[in-house]
Amino acid sequence: MPSVAVKLYSVFFKFLLKHRLQNRIQTPFEDADPFGITSRPEESVAPANPSFGGDGVATKDIHIDTITSLSVRIFLPESCLARPEPPRVQKSNSKRSDSSSVSGSGSDRSDRNSDDLRPRRNSYGAAGSAKAAAAAAEAGRFSLGGSGEGEALKMENGVYRGYAPMGAGRKLPVLLQFHGGGFVSGSNDSVANDFFCRRIAKICDVIVIAVGYRLAPENRYPAAFEDGWKVLNWLGKQAILADCSKSMGKHPPRGGGHGAGAGGDPKRADLRRHIVDTFGSSMVEPWLAAHADPSSPVGGAFVLVWVAVEQCVLLGVSCGANIADYVTRKAVEAGTLLDPIKVVAQVLMYPFFIGSVPTHSEIKLANSYFYDKAMCILAWKLFLPEDEFSLDHPAANPLIPGREPPFKCMPPTLTIVAEHDWMRDRAIAYSEELRKVNIDAPVLEYKDAVHEFATLDMLLKTPQAQACAEDIAIWVKKYISIRGHEFSY
């Protein structure tokens, strides 16, 4: 069972959330504000810190849409400053045990043996965890970088500016994250989400981009879903602009101006110069241009490379998992129209799925910890337009007939569920539907865990949260292995 501290915090959390939801239900919102809000006044916010002090993760906030409040927070781990090392080839007969830890966790990593880890979760549809952990541990020693040649990285008064020559420092994968909160609360810069994203950035050794989407009821469906799709397209534009700047022999500048020489095809160089001139070189985000992997030798399904085949994984938490799943389906439907971005995998953490026909867990655990079923239905009433409210709405129930695109078109999907979460069974059922059509879709169920156990760990301090982050790292490194030396699971 959950600890006494978890139970007490759950009671307090549910009391406050229910009061806020009922107040918003009673407050009329006749005219929706298209600009919207991404954080509530009562939300505890962690300020951005563009330095690597403390835990070794720098953060930056970017408002990426001039007509709405849509924003992102970038989490850049200090490992990007290291010089790249030659990759080590993994031996196929590796015998490392399940107690191997994932590289990049730093001080956040704890030493545990395999007996300590197994009781915390069950897996469905996944291969042997010992072999997976061994492969991930070996993968942690791989370097994801370029030549390592160039000037020193730009630092001013301890603040990292990111204006570095292409090739300096390491190139890291990018993870797109959507926070939870029932569509009506939470934020990408909240203290809890900031803590979670820092942990993921360090343990997985990735650049995390947390999306600050518009909240309901000020902006109902499909505003949050459209914001997620807009951010993915923004990443595609960043890839194109960075590639254009690189092809012209000009690195992301401090101000305006462009390089004159492009090399290669003059017509292609002129076209790329025109693109950069049209959008403005200042729109190239320097942290991404300097440290998101711009080369193809180290590829894999999770690396966002600024060349011909950009590939991305989405991670959604609670209602953020619904957004991630929507964005993934939109990306599948778009196909080559989304080039150069391609979503190749997703991680759904205790997704906010529901339906009109209750599952076993929805009946047995209807009054479970933190988010009980009654409160979640209130949240859905605030999120969905009044004339569209249905527990079988496509945004709420992924198992409705006629769902598009077909399950067989979906990318690999890791689903994380908690033992004491009423939403558990429908998430497992969704994963089972994916496995029926041969999609790699394992489920990890964590013992004695509650909804949001991993993303509220700053308050709950549960051992399952650390184990969950390391399991996510195993999944991530499965998709960023060096080409020609992919892991075998």
UniProtKB/TrEMBL annotation:
GO MF terms held by the record: hydrolase activity
Compositional bias per record (Basic and acidic residues), positions renumbered to this chain: 108-119
Top-level division of the source organism's lineage: Eukaryota
InterPro entries, sorted: AB_hydrolase_3, AB_hydrolase_fold, Carboxylest/Gibb_receptor
Segments for region (Disordered): 32-57, 83-124
Residues annotated as domain Alpha/beta hydrolase fold-3: 175-250, 307-454
PANTHER family per the UniProt record, alphabetical: ARYLACETAMIDE DEACETYLASE, B1065G12.16 PROTEIN
The name this protein goes by in its record: Alpha/beta hydrolase fold-3 domain-containing protein
Annotated source species: Stephania japonica
